[in-house]
Amino acid sequence: MFSIEFLFRIMGAIGGAIGGGMWGDDLGRLLNVAPDTLTAYVVVLGLIGFLGGLVLTPYVTIRPLRYTRHRLATMSVGRLVAIISGLFLGLIAAALISLPLSLLPSPFRQIFPLGAAFIFCYLSIMVLTSRQNDLQAIISSFRSMTPSITGDLSENGAILLDTSVIIDGRIADISKTGFIRGELLIPRFVLMELQHVADSSDALRRNRGRRGLEILSIMQNESPIPVTVTDTDVSDAREVDSKLVALGKHLKCPIMTNDYNLNRVAELQGVSVLNINDLANSVKAAFLPGEELRVKIIQDGKEHGQGVGYLEDGTMVVVENGNRRMHKTLNVTVTKVLQTTAGRMIFARM
Asked: Could you list the mean pLDDT of each consecutive 10-residue stretch along the chain, which spans 350 residues?
């Protein structure tokens, strides 16, 4: 069965052969060559057109279409709306200016309207895509004017994101898995705090802030669920954590965070909290005393004779007398499992 790309290659080769042959005939007649030489011109240029069409046709037809389809399928809704809105506004602006341009003498009246349409569409798309967060905020502000916005957010499972969970970065991978179904809301004051961290004079804080901004960009472009920057604010709070808790109570939304203090404060005020560290600990493999596992000893433990290794999910394994077998992979038996706020620790012996 022929593929679509092969069919396009054949069609392009036939068209290239015909076009090349016609070009060879015109070129030979222009140079006033002999009939035999004219036939050679037609055959050679026809073959060149055939080969050119066979090789190049997919690159100017079906492959750009596939790339466009892939980009549209993976593009976020906010960016797609910004591009369509920019194209629409650019065409309106071009239509308004095409009337005075059509009064110019030829050939300017044919060229300038087309150039104006291209320029206005390009500028409109660039402006709206660079300000797509503001565009989404305007749309959200119109939606927030309806009296049912709080109920809609809680019913749709909207989640407020804290600065710590954005910088952590794991939320980008979690959002791609499909476990989160609701909308992810990023308050404007959280985005401003993230920008303040990215502008810090301290190199470590600056890198963390820039990482958070990169994570947000990835989520807006690649996440299958909507990621919205909301301008909804609370005037009775000043600090970011207090604002986030108050906004969570107002919108009846849970807060996703890795901040231990924010976690406790929100729970005390009756706001639901989703902690990614708790999620990571809950999905780690469970081991019971007496089970065997393999681990590589990479460092000494705190107590004398202990060796420490790590499983693939990051779980720490403390092995009795393991320091004697440093940098070796051992079969060990689990003796005790300890759950801490930092994660799960496994104690074992050889």
From this structure: 77 90 86 83 89 88 82 72 85 85 80 86 84 68 48 61 85 79 83 86 86 86 81 72 84 84 84 80 73 86 85 81 84 82 77
Burial of 229 (0-12, 13-18, 19+ CB in 10 A): buried
- With a CB cutoff of 8 Å and minimum separation 6, the contacts of 204 are none
Q: Determine how many CB atoms are found less than 10 A away from the CB of residue 31.
A: 10
In the chain, the amino acid numbered 184 is L
**What is the maximal distance between C-alpha atoms in the chain?**
99
Q: Rounded to the nearest 10 degrees, what angle do helices 188-198 and 240-251 cross at?
A: 160
- Structural contact between residues 184 and 274, judged by C-beta atoms closer than 8 angstroms: no
**What integer pLDDT is reported at residue 63 of this predicted model?**
84
In this prediction, residue 51 carries a pLDDT of: 92
| pLDDT for the residue numbered 126 | 86
Helix axes 62-74, 4-31, angle to 10 degrees: 140
Handedness of CA 296, 300, 306, 308 (dihedral sign): negative
Give the C-alpha separation, 190 to 246, whole Å.
Answer: 13
Distance, CA of 309 to CA of 294 (rounded, Å)? 10
